[in-house]
Amino acid sequence: MHDDIAVLHAIADLHPRSGGTTRVVVDGADALARQGGLCITLLTQAVRGSELLASGCPRVNRVVAESDSRAGLTLGLPFRRELGRIIRAARPELIHNHGLWMPLNHWAVSMGRRSGIPVIVQPHGMLEPWALNHKAWKKKLAMGLFQWRDLTSASVLVATSNVEYENIREQGLRQPVAVIPNGVDLNVGAMPTTLAKADRQRVVLFLSRIHPVKGLLNLVRAWAQLAPVGWRLRIAGPDDVGHLGDVLALVRQLGVQGSVDYVGAVDGTAKADRYNAADVFVLPTFTENFGLVVAEALAHGLPVITTRGAPWSDLETFGCGWWVDIGVDPLMHALREAMALSDDERLTMGERGRAYVRRYDWDDIAQQTIDVYRWVLGQGPQPDCVRID
Questions:
Q1: Do 322 and 283 meet the contact criterion of CB atoms below 8 Å apart?
Q2: Which domains does the chain have, with CATH numbers?
Q3: Fewer CB within 10 A of the end CB, N or C, for the chain?
Q4: Higher pLDDT, 267 or 218
Q5: Are 331 and 3 in contact (CB under 8 A)?
Q6: Phi (first) and psi of residue 306, to 5 degrees
């Protein structure tokens, strides 16, 4: 019987509106702690008094390195000081670093390296082609200064899909890669019965960050070409980089403001309510390493439309959605097909999705992660999810 393994998880941000990665890291830490055999510390930094996602497991030790201003966080110095204190006081056996490019992520890897602590790096899609091309000059500079060394010194890299694994290898990174999908909360209750009311408007839901990578402009153009009767497009999510203004301007320009709503950022029960009030979910993204909202929508019994920029070919394989080329016309054709189905046909498709998505149960994902931890520490065999080719 092994003693508990002390693992420190490092992430730049735990703000509720920071996107799916933040939620994945918090839920993943909770799931790992529930499994037992681990002491989990979740370390981040934030402006003093900021709203942060709360852990749902009392066994997770969340530590926040605080600053009085955002400028004070730029170089990750509060995080560096707190990490140094933790290493001196408790010396974690592993560091699991979430994300790239930020000084904070560099401190997690470099201080682990200097302290002789194995480091696992999980890019969370930040090595995908679209992501690398976004603000490419900054990333090339960071790669030359510190990021390449941080990546190549990691004991293991973690990819959430086969597509992300292939893109990691395309960068020339040769160390072991564990392919472990994100988990999803499957405790979402029964499917709503109100959807069968014949006189209500049906809803296509987009729920994600309002960011150019998500393809919302393509979605609005497809919606305008369809001009569906009896349907609404509901857009939910935080305005990440000021892109909401572009989206709403296009909505007005194309004259579809009467059937398109922006309902703001949602989380918790409000997010569940949005899923439960929808008939179809759409993510018209240019790229995703996983696409957590797709799994969430399936867990809520929604048929899903997404693009080949997301690793969800199983939508078609298991008959629970559409996996289409990136662009306006493919979106338009998929939306037309989805909206032409009867309520019963969409509910049947949704039930297939709920059955399929059970493979992403957090307890299973946590056990795969623990197996990787033990392998890195020489306490177990190489897990099936680890690829060394």
A1: no
A2: 5-183+361-387 (3.40.50.2000), 194-360 (3.40.50.2000)
A3: N
A4: 218
A5: no
A6: -145, 175
